[in-house]
C-alpha cells in the first residue's frame, strides 16, 4: 500500500511516516495543502491522510478540489476539530473517514487499511490457523497438533494478534498499542519477555518453528512449509 500524508506539523508527520513504514506501508509527505493537492493529482496513492488545518490550502479545500478533478482516492481526515458538526462537514466535503486528534496510531492504521482495501476481504474467521497451530477466539483455546496449550491472558492476546497478521511483520509499536494498550514506549523488555514465553509454549516439542524475530523490525508468525503466492 502507498499513502500520502498531508501534515504541516513536521514532527507529527515524521512519527506517522516511521510508524506506517514499520507496518509495511510506503509513505510520501506533503507539508501544505497546495503541495498535497499537486502530489495527490500527479501520483497514484491508495489512501490520503490529510490534516484539516493546513497552510496555503486547507484540507477540506484540497479534498473538494480533488473530487472536482474526478480523483476519488480514499481520504482520511485528521483534525483537532472533533465535534459532530466538524466530522459531518469533513465527510460532506468528500472525505471518506474522519479521525479526531488525539488518536491512537493503531486505530489510524486500521482505518487506513480499511480504506485501502475497499473491495476488501471477508472478516477473519473466529479460528486462526498457522500450520498445525490453531487458536479459537470463541473458546479461548490454543492447540498444536491437537494438543492443548495453556496460555496466560496476555500471551493469548499476543498470539491472537500475531496470528491475525500471520506472514506479516508485526512491529513493537503495533504490539504495544494492540496487546498492551500502551500509546507510548515504556522502555522495558516486556514484549521480549512475553514473546520468549509464548515461543517456548508453542514451539517446545513441536516442529517446525513458527514464531520468528525480524531483527530491527519486529516479529512474524509463519509456517515456512506454506508456499508464498
From TrEMBL:
Pfam families: Response_reg, Trans_reg_C. The modification 4-aspartylphosphate is found at residue 51. Residues 2-116 form the Response regulatory domain. Keywords: DNA-binding, Phosphoprotein. Residues 125-223 form the OmpR/PhoB-type domain. It comes from the Bacteria. Residues 125-223 bind DNA. InterPro entries: CheY-like_superfamily, OmpR/PhoB-type_DNA-bd, Sig_transdc_resp-reg_receiver, WalR-like, WH-like_DNA-bd_sf. The keyword Phosphoprotein applies. Gene3D superfamilies: 3.40.50.2300, 6.10.250.690, Winged helix-like DNA-binding domain superfamily/Winged helix DNA-binding domain (1.10.10.10). This is Response regulator transcription factor. It comes from Sinorhizobium kummerowiae.
Amino acid at each position: 500500500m502507498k499513502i500520502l500524508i498531508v501534515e504541516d506539523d513536521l514532527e507529527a508527520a515524521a512519527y506517522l511516516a516511521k510508524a506506517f513504514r514499520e507496518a509495511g506501508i510506503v509513505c510520501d509527505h506533503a507539508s501544505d495543502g497546495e503541495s498535497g493537492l499537486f502530489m495527490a493529482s500527479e501520483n497514484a496513492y491508495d489512501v490520503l491522510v490529510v490534516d484539516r488545518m493546513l497552510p496555503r490550502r486547507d484540507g477540506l479545500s484540497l479534498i473538494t478540489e480533488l473530487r472536482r478533478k474526478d480523483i476519488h482516492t480514499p481520504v482520511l481526515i485528521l483534525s483537532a476539530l472533533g465535534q459532530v458538526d466538524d466530522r459531518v462537514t469533513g465527510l460532506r466535503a468528500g472525505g471518506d473517514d474522519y479521525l479526531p486528534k488525539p488518536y491512537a496510531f493503531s486505530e489510524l492504521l486500521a482505518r487506513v487499511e480499511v480504506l485501502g482495501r475497499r473491495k476488501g476481504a471477508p472478516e477473519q474467521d473466529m479460528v486462526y490457523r498457522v500450520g498445525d497451530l490453531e487458536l479459537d477466539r470463541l473458546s479461548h483455546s490454543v492447540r498444536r497438533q491437537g494438543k492443548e496449550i495453556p496460555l496466560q491472558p496476555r500471551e493469548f492476546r499476543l498470539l491472537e494478534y500475531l496470528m491475525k497478521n500471520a506472514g506479516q511483520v508485526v512491529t513493537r509499536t503495533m504490539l504495544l498499542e494492540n496487546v498492551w494498550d500502551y500509546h507510548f514506549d515504556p522502555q522495558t523488555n516486556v514484549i521480549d519477555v512475553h514473546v520468549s514465553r509464548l515461543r517456548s509454549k508453542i514451539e517446545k516439542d513441536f516442529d517446525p518453528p513458527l514464531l520468528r524475530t525480524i531483527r530491527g523490525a519486529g516479529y512474524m508468525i509463519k509456517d515456512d512449509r506454506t508456499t508464498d503466492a
